[in-house]
Amino acid sequence: MYPDPKRVRHHRISTRLDDYEEQRWRRMCDQLGIQPATLLRDLAMAECVRWSVQPDRMQQQAANDPVMKDSA
C-alpha cells in the first residue's frame, strides 16, 4: 500500500488559539494559499530542524523569552 508505513500521518496534536491569534494565522494561510494544518506542520518541522542544529543556544534563548516565561 505505502512504501513506508511510518510516513502515514496519523498522529494528531491540538493547539488552542485566541481570536486574535487565529485571525492572524488565517490571514497568513490565505496570503500563502496553504491549508492551516499544512502550514503549521511545515513550520513545526522547520523549527525542529533548526532546534537540532543549535539546541543549546535555542534552549537558552527560549528560557529568556518573556512569552515563554508567561506561559509557564
TrEMBL record:
This is Uncharacterized protein. The lineage of its organism: Bacteria, Pseudomonadati, Pseudomonadota, Betaproteobacteria, Burkholderiales. It comes from the Bacteria. It comes from Pseudacidovorax intermedius.
